[in-house]
Write a structure and sequence with these properties.
Distance between the termini: 63 Å
Structural class: mainly alpha
Number of strands: 0
Number of helices: 20
Largest sheet: none
Strand content: under 5%
Helix content: 55-70%
Radius of gyration: 22 Å
Shape: globular
Length: 457
């Protein structure tokens, strides 16, 4: 390596460190600089469940929220005392781990070193992403487990121990969030191979067996308490709220928390409640007709999902009529700085991902197909259920990955450096498609409040 090359790497590393420190410093200052931010929504539930578990309460405290995050918080509090800041520090380590796993995954899928590094950097220093480590939602815990599953399956698809570990992580992810409930069987695609035998049976069995062992206690609890194997089930309720949401931005007349008590009071068991709300959903669709409902969902849900009013921005000071909760006590300069940084990264990541996807030229193998199905599954799910902007977070690593590939390829072209591992073709037709897709995503990100005439009186 030449001296000039070493100097470039040193400068790049210093820049990454400076940006990471700046992002973290602003977020910690926002959370604790004035009055500490109060917990909101599900954060309060996870905290209450964790404290109840510490006091000897049930380890499966709810049929709505899966148990892992409460158990995770309870374990931290039992070890270090009941200090939210310690949980935040642990989750920050997991968040950094997510960035490292993303880098490895993208290298496994053929991305160049520069592309993988850029993807990890985008994910790491976007304040809207980093802020999840400060909240008590299970987003960071769940994402770390999901990315670890992908990494284990991609790096060692034929290894029994790695496959079993991936199955165990999948089980833990199901105990953190219900997101993968209908998707996890598709992880078996990772065991398909080109040569004979076409399917790696023994590693696949190890994967499923480990998943079963991890989830068995929760499933048995469901059988014992409610007569069927279940971890947590709020799907029908979330479908009902998703169909009856009105606005293209979350936290505007939000009905999720407001109507939950009525749902819980509607029946004594999860099956009774789900049956009642299933009938409400069917009656709603019959009354409106399927195509009207589909059109309404298409015109609202993806604005909520891709909204630039991320959970960070939603919690900063601002007008309630625009969906601001104002639970951070930040001065105006910090509010403006974090909002501007948030919006800049939303543009960079969504726009870059659109170009990266359009310009991708490498033939997809089973691993890339699995990633595509993972994203497509969530996009399909978000067409139906109650959507908040934080539900984009599980897809964010792969948006950063495609954005990283595009930015790395564009840099290579501008500087005339050939990148032998480049997987993109920056041809005019592909760039035109990328521009159209980027325009669509950015329209979804920023146009919702204007279309809804929020705060218009």
């Amino acid at each position: 390596m030449t001296a000039a090359r070493r100097a470039q790497r040193t400068a790049a590393s210093a820049l990454v460190a400076a940006l990471t420190v700046a992002s973290q410093a602003l977020l910690w200052l926002a959370y604790y600089g004035g009055a500490a931010k109060r917990l909101i929504g599900d954060e309060e539930s996870y905290q209450a469940f964790a404290l109840a578990i510490l006091g000897g309460g049930p380890w499966m405290p709810s049929t709505i929220w899966p148990p892992l995050q409460s158990l995770f918080l309870a374990a931290i509090y039992a070890t270090f005392g009941v200090h939210v800041v310690v949980a935040q520090l642990v989750q920050t380590l997991l968040f950094v781990g997510c960035a490292c796993l993303l880098r490895g995954i993208w290298r496994d899928l053929g991305g160049s070193v520069r592309a993988a590094n850029t993807a990890a950097l985008l994910f790491l220093i976007d304040p809207a992403n980093a802020a999840y480590a400060h909240w008590l939602w299970p987003e960071v815990t769940h994402l770390f487990l999901v990315l670890l599953v992908f990494r284990l399956l991609f790096a060692g698809p034929g290894a029994r121990l790695a496959s079993a570990a991936a199955g165990a992580c999948t089980g833990l992810a199901l105990l953190a969030k219900s997101l993968l409930s209908a998707f996890w069987p598709l992880f078996l695609i990772a065991f398909v191979r080109r040569e004979r035998p076409r399917f790696r049976i023994v590693p696949a069995v190890a994967f499923v067996a480990a998943l079963g062992v991890v989830t068995a206690p929760a499933l048995w609890h469901g059988v014992r308490e409610y007569g069927r194997p279940m971890i947590a089930d709020s799907s029908i309720y979330n479908l009902w709220i998703g169909l009856t949401d009105r606005w293209r931005s979350d936290y505007v007349d939000d009905m999720g928390g407001a109507t939950l008590p009525a749902f819980l009071a509607s029946g004594d068991t999860p099956e009774q409640r789900n049956a009642i709300y299933r009938e409400k959903v069917l009656a709603f669709v019959r009354e409106r007709d399927f195509f009207s409902v589909f059109g309404d969902q298409l015109g609202r849900q993806y604005f909520r999902l891709f909204s630039a009013k991320t959970p960070l921005v939603s919690q900063l000071p601002g007008p309630a009529c625009a969906g601001h909760l104002s639970v951070y006590s930040t001065p105006e300069w910090l509010t403006r700085t974090l909002t501007g940084w948030n919006d800049a990264f939303q543009i960079l990541i969504l726009g870059g991902a659109a170009f990266g996807l359009a310009c991708w030229r490498k033939r997809p193998d089973a691993r890339l197909v699995l990633v595509g199905l993972y994203v497509a599954y969530q996009l399909a799910l978000m067409l139906l259920v109650h959507v908040k902007a934080r539900f984009l977070f599980p897809m964010m690593p792969f948006l950063c990955a495609f954005a990283g590939s595009f930015l790395a390829a564009a840099f290579a072209r501008l500087t005339a450096h050939a990148d032998r591992a480049d997987t993109l073709a920056l041809t005019p037709p592909r760039l035109a498609i990328g521009a159209a897709l980027a325009a669509l995503l950015l329209f979804l990100a920023f146009a919702g409040p204007a279309l809804d005439h929020l705060c218009a009186g």
